[in-house]
Design a protein that fits this description.
Number of domains: 2
Strand content: 15-25%
Helix content: 25-40%
Largest sheet: 5 strands, mixed
Number of strands: 7
Radius of gyration: 18 Å
Number of helices: 6
Strand order of the largest sheet: 2-1-3-4-7
Shape: elongated
Length: 197
């Protein structure tokens, strides 16, 4: 209930806090990362530049356990719109990464990825209910993904007015890679063991 109230307040304050048209927050210097797991204060945090893992942990008040992370992971940086979770599982501390919820993204003025978002996530768009979200996902599957936002106009129930209303919240850009700084960049998998005791 508190989360819903917070999201509603942020939604109505959004015009004063964030530019009205989502345009890829990274271009504007706003980086939002959702931090979860074994943290003292899990939440969504804002940064002026891509944060590294140490900055994420410090923003969330530190780890709730006394286990530390190996030095090689502390400089990993993350793109805006990511969800990062650190969980202690037995003797391992694991780092998980995925995309932030579409509901958080739209509230923060960040576009959601049309070709990757779930039916439920698409309902975060104004005017899109479960029926239209299902139709969007079905059309996306038929096409093998959308190549242009204009293709949404071919879906029964999406007219010019609704199209203009939802397109500021959408993107079809490719996923940006999460990387380690330096010449030997590597893709971080969805689950990464960070320490073994």
């Amino acid at each position: 209930m508190l989360l819903l109230l917070t999201l509603l307040v942020l939604h109505f304050l959004k015009p004063a806090l964030i530019p009205s048209r989502p345009s890829g927050s990274e271009d504007e210097g706003h980086f939002f990362i959702q931090v979860e797991g074994d943290m003292k204060f899990p939440a969504v945090y804002a940064f002026n530049r891509p944060p590294n893992l140490t900055q994420l942990i410090n923003s969330a008040g530190g780890l709730s356990s006394n286990k530390g992370l190996p030095e090689k992971f502390k400089d990993l940086t993350f793109s805006s719109g990511m969800k990062v979770a650190i969980r202690t599982e037995g003797v391992e501390t694991r780092l998980y990464q995925s995309e932030m919820s579409a509901f958080y993204k739209t509230t923060l003025g960040m576009p959601i990825h049309l070709n990757r978002e779930s039916e439920t996530g698409l309902t975060a768009l104004p005017g899109i209910g479960l029926g239209l979200a299902k139709a969007i996902v079905e059309e996306r599957s038929k096409r093998g993904g959308f190549r242009s936002l204009d293709e949404l106009l071919s879906i029964n129930g999406i007219g010019e007015k609704l199209y203009r209303k939802i397109t500021p919240y959408l993107t079809i850009q490719k996923r940006k890679e999460i990387h380690s700084p330096g010449p030997l960049s590597q893709r971080l998998p969805r689950s990464w063991p960070t320490s073994q005791m």
